[in-house]
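Progress report, Aim 2. The chain analyzed during this reporting quarter is listed below.
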Amino acid sequence: MTLPPDWQQRSDVFQNNFSVKRKVFVSYHHELDQFWFDLFTKIFSDDYEVFQDQSLDGAVDSEDLEYVNRAVREDHIKGTSITIVLCGAETWKRKFIDWEIASTLHLEHALLGLLLPGTLPGSAGKYLVPDRLHDNIQTGYASFERWPDTPQQLKTKIESALNKSLYKFLIRNERFKMTRNL
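Predicted C-alpha cells for the chain:
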C-alpha cells in the first residue's frame, strides 16, 4: 500500500495531540471475553475518557437491522473516536460485533483490533478476526495488534489507528451484515 505524500504531515498533527484523552468504544464477545474487557478497563481506563460496556445482546430489542444499526451508531459509537475490538477465539462469529464494526465504519471512526493473550491461530495458521475488520486491515484503514503491556503501548497503537483513519477512501463496509451468530 502506498501512502499519500502528506502522511507525515498528518501524522505530526496527531503526535501533537498525543496527550488527548480519547473516547473509546470497546467491542468484544461478552460471554467468552468478559475477563479481558474487565482487565482492559482496569489497566487502561485512567488514560481514556470513555470505555463502554453496553452489550447489544438484549440491549436493543429488535431484529430490524436498520433500527439496530441506528441504535448502535447513536447510543454506543457516536461521540467516540475509535472502536477497539478485543479479538478472542470466537469474536469473528458474533453478529453484534459485526454490527458495531459496521457502525464504526459508517461513522468513519478509527478501528483497532487487539489480539487477546492466549488466542490461538486457526487451522491455516492465521488469527481469525471478524470479516469486516479483516477487510479494513487489508486496505490499511484498520490496525490489528497484539495486546498492549502498558498504557503507553496502547496509546501508541490508538494513535497509529487514528492516523490510518484519516484516509476514509480505504474504508470497506460493503458486506451484508451478519444476521446470526456462527
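Confidence is low (pLDDT under 50) at residues 11-16. Strands lie at 23-27, 50-52, 82-87, 110-115, 143-146. These observations will guide the mutagenesis work planned for the next reporting period.
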